[in-house]
Amino acid sequence: MTDTSTLQGEGATSAPTHLYGVFLSENSKLFWLVTWTGALTIVTLGIYRFWARTRLRRYIWSSIRPGGDSFEYTGTGLEKFLGFLIALVVLAVYLGLLQVVLSFIGFSLWGAITSEPRGPMDVVTQLGATYVTGLAVLPLIFFAQYRARRYMLSRTRWRGLRFAMDAAAVGYAWRALLYFGLSIVTLGALMPLATFRLEKYMTDRMWYGDASFEQEGQWTALYGAMKHLFIAVGLLLPAGVIIYWGLFLGFLFLGFLSILSFAGCIWLLFGFIYYQVESFKYLTAQKVLDGQVRFTSQASCERVIGIFVQGIILITILTIVLILIFVALYFVFSALGSNGMPGGGAGAEIFGGSGLLWALLVVILGSLACFVLIGALATVFISAPILGHIVDTLRVENSGQLEQIRQRAGDLMDDADGFADALDVGGAF
Predict the structure, then answer these.
(1) Number of H helices and number of E strands within the chain?
(2) Is 361 helix (H, G, I), strand (E, B) or coil?
(3) Beta-bridge partners for 397
């Protein structure tokens, strides 16, 4: 959908001044795409997942059509698979060397492994030395997140022009590690700082053709999006105090504690979704392309939660139906295997003595089928509708300036988004 404005002079019109996001996806096509690619992934023991994700991305990208022009995804499954293999080698070397160093520091230097624990502090030291090696994976996760976005942008085209992103994953990784630590230490009080600074780091290195993006705004403006998180904390903190004093007061406040804890957890979930939606809207409104093109989003937190709740209810009902079907088949084959077919005949020859084997096969195939179908249903009824809502509520302002943008020189990524695949990060699609 576009808006146009009239230029000075008779019969002359300007290029569209606004573009609106359009998401056109057919649930039936999406369901069968996710279902059969998921089945192939299981049959190939996970190898086909790279081609499955590629086919899904191509379909989703083609369904996003701002101004009537669809996005194009040019990545390949082979590219992702080879990138994954390269990443595995790098990850193995990195983790091996880093864990050796951390183990030496933790065990040898502290002496935690050379002697038996002699007190509580020795136990704490030994446990700390053991779990500190797990921190080695955090920089890799952040590294993979940046690489995943960069790869997807480099394989995305619109109106024949390619998106791109500068190579700066290492800088993003250590910054993300720093802001993650600050958020933890401050119990989430500096989460808006982390959200804004990390998004700005990535946005300021993004390109569409030869036009660069810029993230404007202030990180303090995101505190408004945290109001429901603060309410949730206000409910959970008294619950924690009651738990502490409950050790001495018995079960006097057990009922009140249960209600307070349940309300706090529900509000925390709502607050997290609210923060994600509202921070996305603010950050989107503060993005600028080529110094002139701006964006706005009217995404609704209530709509996102509604889609999520409706999807969960529908998936739960359908899953229960599937489970009941497979349970019924299991008992049927089990009975045939134990007692044989009533009256004998060919059925008894087929199932007699092998019914239990058939029942076991039903359990295995039923579990795999449920796994594939639940994934397909989650994509069709939750992920795709939420993405569609975000796209449909997106507006590009001053879009006439897009006509002035030209293609930028290519930047190939030899390892694709292998790190993201190896660490299983990089987004829903």
Answers:
(1) 14, 10
(2) helix
(3) 18, 294
**Chain segment 48-95, per-residue pLDDT in tens:** 999 999 999 999 999 999 988 999 999 888 888 888 888 888 878 877
Q: Cα separation of 44 and 343, whole Å?
A: 42
Does residue 317 have a pLDDT over 60?
yes
Domain ranges within the chain, ordered by starting residue: 218-285
Give residue for tokens 């401050």: 186
Task: Say if CB 375 and CB 367 are below 8 A apart.
Answer: no
Structural contact between residues 50 and 84, judged by C-beta atoms closer than 8 angstroms: yes
Residue 210 has a CB neighbour count (10 Å cut-off) of 14
Taking the C-alpha atoms of residue 210 and residue 213, their distance in angstroms, rounded to an integer, is 10
Distance CA 379, CA 385 (A): 8
How many residues can be counted in the chain?
Answer: 429
Q: What is the pTM of this model?
A: 0.81
Q: CB under 8 Å, gap of 24 or more: what pairs does 326-334 form?
A: 326/362, 326/363, 326/366, 326/369, 326/370, 329/359, 329/362, 329/366, 330/359, 330/362, 330/363, 330/366, 331/359, 333/358, 333/359, 333/362, 334/359
